[in-house]
Prior knowledge:
It is a single chain. The protein is about 65% helix and about 0% strand. It is mainly alpha-helical. It starts with 12 loop residues before the first helix and ends with a helix. It has one domain (about 15-180).
Amino acid sequence: MSSPKLVAPPRNFIWEFLLFFCTGGLYSMLWFRLIARDCKHICGKPDSPILWLLVPLIPPAQPFALPHLFAAIRECEKQINIRPWPVIFDYVWIAIMFTCSFYFWVSFFIETRIKIDLIVLVLWIGWQMLLHIRMNRVRKRRLHEPMMPRYVGFNVVEWATIGLFLPILLTLFSWLFYFTTNQSM
């Protein structure tokens, strides 16, 4: 019998939040792919983990794709004897994820206020952290290994991303908040 396949290691949700924020949410593409890959390694579902790179970018696909992902997560939890979330919470999570993602799509075409954009971004990231915590419970029960060596929570590429983009984004959002608040001057 072959040995169990490795999954991504659990990580503190604060590190994960920083990666989401510093990449403007683009990290979600890799994050969903890793969740799908880990579920595939544990229970054989979903069928195409690589397609999950696109799910965060295409909100109309989310109401169809995310229930399949949650079914796979439930199957994994069942196989390793972890109590799952109530099913209703899966659907609430999907609805809020879709709403935030759809807002970003709409705000690309229609001018929106930067403060609302930032609030929705933080809500969207925070909402994904709930699923991150759920997946950490699964990952702790499985053999796990990082794709690259980690140093205090991040690998070298992630540290470079945080180090480069966190100051830039904090400066940009601070300036935009100041500018939009004092526009009437």
